[in-house]
């Protein structure tokens, strides 16, 4: 049977999307008002110049790559700045540095980025070529011919076969199956079919059009369309009419640019780089003024051997020196900063992808970092917005209880009327009498089966409705072996329940539904399907039974159904409401069921109006909604269903851990209030010990305002406190922040969807945010997808905090895209949430590892990288600044030109990358043991404007030491043989050697976690420095390139002197000693949470390594490692320490544990 790819709330499980571009944002743009074409009439269709079926996702070709890529790269401020510097360096009156000092780093950065972009684009070219050259059968001149995809045109009729990709957006014409959705003959449409439809757009869930055939007009909607990017399944072949091709297809229309998410550190870096530009300009201005003063006072003395050019004066010299110092001090603006940041993010993304502890073997689903630009933001999350069904729960539904005609079924009671707990040993209902029953289905209340088999009309009508009112597709490979393909687990569970109780859904066609009712085959004529959507929250079918009776069957949310009941059902409604509240209190998902008998004459008239509305090109949805509202009223209540959706493993523990990390979790769900509350208690979000749980359920704006104005602190203000400020680049962005207020105890907030609609209005939204943020837990129930996104945007706007949204279905996509970080759960609801997300995995419990381990490590690494990067560059540059006062402000460099060229690219690049990719303050188990380690990231404690200023002050101190100590040591110094040592080359070599050694020592002090890679990078960079230095300062290099390597013999002459090494030692000591002392004092006097945990971890390991044998028996327990080695570990540390490889020795009455790895 053919199962169409229907995009409503999720992807169909058997129609597979093949492109992640479905996740792109929604940008509505149209190039035509209406599309008109004829079937199999190429000359007519080509006159409209519709796009063909070729796609192009690549950006460049062989000729445009270089100019376009360079143009894109030079749009970045830093690259354009360094290009400007390189232009200045070719002006001899300005530059005292060779052009290559800027050109080599710039070319290297541009090359790395260009290679990455070229690699990405080559892959896109290969993908485009592969897709465009696929073959498909096209009906041309009355015969099927094999054509490439790129040659397919709008209006062509093509034939697809099983497991073949859908070539373009198609209107389904016919298939090998008798239950095809469309039943138009291929011959008739090929001769005279004309289609009018909407223009190309990216709305995956909607399609409007009409087909005119033999004078008759037929409605076309999304159910009759196959979308490009899907795979044809469960049918041998089908014919389709091409509606949209290539770039006009829904898939490609959704591949537009999404909103580019940037981290808070990115925004801060932009501001800091702007400040650095200003600081650089001020430094150059000071030095330029100094040059002018020096030229006036001292310059005339040197004109005897340095004559001035004609027309040159102090003012011109000062002007030129300004630009010269712009060139020399350019390292304040680090060219390699952004490239290094991207490399670090890429490395941390790989760690997420490779984490086996986030791999779900049941579904063979690993964690996936779908973006590489947001890793450090994972370490700063303050608010989590979570869906419930499929995110906190398994989304595997089981029919648990039901209410039929006011009587509840599904629970067991003993003779005294007390409820009996149902366990695995409880006797199950025997369905062996039903040969078509699902053997996996379990139910324990025998009275329900007895009621049905006795012929109770209400009970039979109840299950008849469940067997008819749905969109499930059956599959029967063998006689009696039924498999249901359901769009949602709820529908599958309900249809399966009806199947076991004797009402078996067997098959369907576009016009009929066939069911087996208590052993009797009954075929119903299907007159209309009133689809479910998130606004209607109900579904109806209108059928005619074999006796000719017309009936509308409806199921949906209880609040929606109850509004449409006939007054005669009031008493039954009250009884059913009581059962629904009981079911919701037990955490079950509920639906209400109702029906209505219809009059034949009314139905004929309604169907005519329905046809007119469904074929209308303007206002189709509104007209259909009015018709649905008209017919779905005065319903008669049958009862209600309750299905169970169990929590995923580890959800309560994960929420508890995240709460300890001071992360607030808000649950946004479409379920009933009672169901949501029950899940809240099950997840440990709502607790009995909470001081109060507020429920906001008013139906008016004034009522909502009154319920929101709760006093949780005696001295709380009447109105929310809002702080206004400016932020962003050039401080142009105005921000408003609702201030946190003190709370007297723990509170919870539960708010309904209709109340939330009032609360999100402009005059109440701050009151909502104030109250919600004062509560420990917030649960919003009966909310729409739009409301989910609005809540996220409200918190983003007025709390200035980092938000994360997590969900598993299409109704969560808007929320996922609205948050700073979106996480998709790959579960039962398809892949739409995953395709829209930044990170994805299979289980909610993996979220704590993503945040508390990977997120925290990524944030810590990025902050340490930025602090160290700015420190090493500022220190390097400030030495030039001090040297200016000793060289007459002549813009002479203090270092060798080759050292300037290689400093950032070679000597200091790899060590800092090693630290920034591999460093850990504590391992993952200690991160779980102390979730409070996460809070510094929320407060931006590791890198901020204050931290940047402190970094500059540290650099200033280090630069003073690195310049004046070597200068003083070299002043009037002689070699061992009495010859002078004090010359410019020797001083430059000493200063740059001291600088590099100090930078490496500082990096070693900043590194917590050492690996072989870190060791190799640190020692390798030092070895590379000395090897390159001795090579460049050798006689051979001077003889070959005399002008480029003037420091001949400096290295062997200077570094052979003990005084030089003593100076290096003294300089390094004076630079590092204050750092060590200050850190020691801070750890002792004002320790951070990291300091405390690291101290405790060190003491733990020390106590494990060295424990007196007399105390061992009472303090330790026996543990077996994975390799079967028996060891003993202190009892209180068993839960947080794992011994991977260890040997136990007895030495002088003490136990020593060696080779301990965490």
UniProtKB/TrEMBL annotation:
MF (Gene Ontology): ATP binding; ATP hydrolysis activity; ATPase-coupled intramembrane lipid transporter activity; magnesium ion binding
CDD domains reported for this sequence: P-type_ATPase_APLT_Dnf-like
SUPFAM superfamilies linked to this entry: Calcium ATPase, transduction domain A, Calcium ATPase, transmembrane domain M, HAD-like, Metal cation-transporting ATPase, ATP-binding domain N
TM region positions: 97-115, 271-294, 314-339, 865-886, 898-918, 947-969, 989-1010, 1022-1048, 1060-1082
Key word Metal-binding present: yes
Membrane topology annotation: Multi-pass membrane protein
Matches recorded under InterPro entries: ATPase_P-typ_cyto_dom_N, ATPase_P-typ_P_site, ATPase_P-typ_TM_dom_sf, ATPase_P-typ_transduc_dom_A_sf, HAD-like_sf, HAD_sf, P-type_ATPase_IV, P-type_ATPase_N
Gene Ontology biological-process annotations: Golgi organization; phospholipid translocation
EC number: 7.6.2.1
Positions contributing to ATP binding: 387-389, 491, 532, 555, 589, 669-671, 782, 788, 811-812
Positions that bind Mg(2+): 387, 389, 808, 812
Keywords noted in UniProt: ATP-binding, Magnesium, Membrane, Metal-binding, Nucleotide-binding, Translocase, Transmembrane, Transmembrane helix
Annotated P-type ATPase N-terminal domain residues: 39-102
Reactions performed catalytically: ATP + H2O + phospholipidSide 1 = ADP + phosphate + phospholipidSide 2
Gene Ontology cellular-component annotations: plasma membrane; trans-Golgi network
Residue numbers annotated as active site: 387 (4-aspartylphosphate intermediate)
Domain P-type ATPase C-terminal span(s) in chain numbering: 834-1088
Subcellular location: Membrane
Family: Belongs to the cation transport ATPase (P-type) (TC 3.A.3) family. Type IV subfamily.
NCBIfam families: ATPase-Plipid (TIGR01652), ATPase_P-type (TIGR01494)
Name used for this protein in its record: Phospholipid-transporting ATPase
Gene from which the chain derives: LOC116045140
């Amino acid at each position: 049977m053919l199962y169409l790819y229907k995009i409503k709330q999720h992807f169909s499980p058997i129609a597979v999307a093949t492109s992640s571009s479905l996740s792109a944002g929604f940008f509505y743009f149209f190039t035509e008002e209406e599309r008109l074409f004829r079937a199999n009439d190429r000359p007519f269709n080509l006159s409209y110049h519709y796009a063909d079926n070729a796609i192009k996702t690549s950006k460049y070709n062989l000729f445009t790559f270089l100019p376009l890529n360079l143009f894109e790269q030079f749009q970045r401020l830093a690259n354009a700045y360094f290009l400007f510097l390189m232009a200045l360096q070719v002006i001899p009156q300005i530059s005292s540095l060779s052009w290559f000092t800027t050109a080599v780093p710039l070319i290297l950065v541009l090359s790395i980025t260009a290679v990455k972009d070229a690699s990405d684009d080559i892959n896109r070219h290969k993908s485009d070529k592969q897709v465009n050259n696929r073959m498909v059968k096209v009906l041309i001149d009355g015969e099927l011919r094999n054509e490439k995809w790129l040659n397919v045109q709008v209006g062509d009729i093509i034939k697809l076969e099983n497991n073949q990709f859908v070539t373009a957006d198609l209107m389904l014409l016919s298939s090998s199956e008798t239950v095809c959705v469309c039943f138009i003959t291929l011959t008739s449409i090929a001769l005279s079919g004309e289609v009018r439809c909407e223009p190309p757009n990216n709305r995956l869930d909607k399609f409007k059009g009409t087909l005119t055939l033999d004078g008759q007009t037929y409605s076309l909607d999304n159910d009759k369309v196959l979308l490009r990017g899907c795979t044809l399944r469960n049918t041998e072949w089908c014919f389709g009419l091409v509606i949209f091709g290539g770039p006009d297809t829904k898939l490609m229309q959704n591949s537009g640019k999404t909103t580019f998410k940037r981290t808070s550190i990115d925004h801060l870096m932009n501001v800091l780089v702007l400040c650095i530009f200003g600081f650089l300009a001020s430094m150059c201005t000071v030095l330029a003024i100094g040059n002018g003063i020096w030229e006036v006072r001292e310059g005339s003395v040197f004109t005897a051997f340095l004559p001035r050019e004609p027309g040159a004066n102090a003012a011109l010299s000062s002007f030129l020196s300004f630009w010269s110092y712009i060139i020399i001090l350019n390292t304040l603006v680090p060219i390699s900063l952004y490239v290094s940041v991207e490399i670090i993010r890429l490395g941390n993304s790989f760690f997420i992808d490779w984490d086996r502890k986030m791999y779900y073997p049941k579904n063979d689903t690993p964690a996936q970092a779908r973006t590489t630009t947001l890793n450090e933001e994972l370490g700063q999350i303050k608010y989590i917005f979570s869906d419930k069904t499929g995110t906190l729960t398994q989304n595997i539904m089981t029919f648990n209880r039901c209410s039929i005609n006011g009587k509840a079924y599904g629970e067991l009671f003993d003779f005294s009327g007390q409820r009996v707990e149902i366990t695995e040993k409880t006797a199950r209902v025997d369905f062996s009498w039903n040969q078509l029953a699902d053997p996996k289905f379990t139910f324990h209340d025998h009275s329900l089966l007895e009621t049905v088999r006795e012929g109770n009309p209400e009970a039979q009508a109840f299950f008849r409705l469940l067997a008819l009112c749905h969109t499930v597709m059956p599959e029967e490979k063998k006689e009696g072996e039924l498999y249901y393909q359901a769009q949602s687990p709820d529908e599958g569970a309900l249809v399966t329940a009806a199947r076991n109780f004797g009402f078996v859904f067997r098959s369907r066609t576009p016009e009929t539904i066939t069911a087996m009712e208590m052993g009797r085959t009954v075929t119903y004529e299907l007159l209309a399907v009133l689809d479910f959507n998130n606004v209607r929250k109900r579904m109806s079918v209108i059928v005619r039974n074999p006796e000719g009776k017309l009936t509308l069957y409806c199921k949906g949310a209880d609040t929606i159904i109850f509004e449409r009941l006939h007054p005669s059902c009031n008493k039954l409604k009250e009884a059913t409401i009581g059962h629904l509240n009981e079911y919701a209190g037990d955490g079950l998902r509920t639906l209400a069921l109702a029906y209505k008998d219809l009059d034949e004459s009314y139905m004929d008239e309604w169907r005519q109006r329905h046809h007119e509305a469904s074929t209308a090109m303007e206002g189709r949805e509104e007209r259909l909604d009015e018709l649905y509202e008209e017919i779905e009223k005065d319903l008669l209540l049958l009862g209600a269903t309750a299905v169970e959706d169990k929590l995923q493993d580890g959800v309560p523990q994960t929420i508890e851990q995240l709460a300890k990390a001071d992360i607030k979790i808000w649950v946004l769900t479409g379920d009933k209030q009672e169901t949501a509350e029950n899940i809240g208690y099950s997840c440990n979000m709502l607790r009995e010990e909470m001081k109060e749980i507020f429920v906001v359920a008013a139906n008016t704006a004034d009522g909502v305002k009154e319920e929101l104005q709760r006093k949780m602190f005696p001295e709380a203000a009447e109105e929310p406190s809002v702080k206004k400020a400016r932020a962003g680049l050039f401080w142009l962005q105005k921000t408003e922040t609702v201030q946190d207020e003190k709370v007297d105890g723990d509170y919870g907030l539960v708010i309904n969807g209709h109340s939330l609609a009032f609360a999100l209005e402009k005059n109440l939204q701050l009151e909502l945010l104030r109250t919600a943020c004062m509560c420990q837990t917030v649960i919003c129930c009966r909310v729409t997808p739009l409301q989910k996104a609005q809540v996220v945007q409200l918190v983003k706007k007025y709390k200035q905090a980092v938000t994360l949204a997590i969900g598993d279905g299409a109704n969560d996509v808007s929320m996922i895209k609205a948050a700073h970080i979106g996480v998709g759960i790959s579960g039962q609801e398809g892949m739409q949430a995953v395709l829209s997300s930044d990170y994805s995995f299979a289980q909610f419990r993996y979220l704590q590892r993503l945040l508390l381990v990977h997120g925290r490590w990524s944030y810590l690494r990025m902050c340490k990288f930025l602090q160290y990067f700015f420190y090493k560059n500022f220190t390097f540059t400030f030495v030039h600044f001090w040297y200016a006062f000793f060289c007459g402000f002549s813009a002479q460099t203090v270092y060798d030109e080759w050292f300037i060229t290689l400093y950032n690219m070679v000597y200091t690049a790899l060590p800092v990358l090693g630290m920034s990719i591999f460093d850990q303050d504590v391992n993952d188990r200690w991160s779980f043991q102390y979730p409070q380690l996460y809070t510094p990231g929320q407060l931006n404690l590791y890198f901020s404007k204050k931290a940047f200023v402190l970094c500059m002050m540290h650099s200033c101190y280090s630069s003073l030491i690195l310049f004046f100590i070597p200068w003083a040591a070299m002043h009037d110094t002689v070699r061992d043989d009495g010859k002078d040592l004090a010359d410019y080359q020797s001083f430059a070599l000493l200063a740059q050697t001291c600088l590099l050694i100090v930078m490496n020592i500082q990096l070693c002090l900043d590194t917590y976690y050492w690996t072989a890679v870190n060791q190799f990078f640190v020692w390798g960079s030092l070895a590379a420095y000395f090897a390159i230095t001795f090579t460049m300062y050798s006689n051979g290099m001077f003889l070959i390139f005399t002008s480029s390597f003037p420091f001949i013999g400096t290295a062997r002459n200077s570094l052979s002197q003990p005084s030089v090494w003593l100076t290096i030692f003294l300089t390094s000591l004076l630079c590092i000693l204050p750092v060590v002392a200050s850190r020691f004092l801070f750890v002792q006097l004002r320790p951070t949470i990291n300091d405390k945990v690291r101290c405790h971890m060190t003491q733990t390991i020390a106590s494990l390594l060295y424990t007196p044998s007399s105390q061992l028996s009472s303090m330790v327990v026996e543990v077996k490692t994975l390799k079967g080695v028996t060891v003993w570990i202190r009892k209180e540390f068993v839960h947080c320490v794992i011994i991977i490889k260890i040997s136990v020795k007895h030495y002088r009455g003490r136990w020593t544990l060696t080779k301990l790895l965490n």
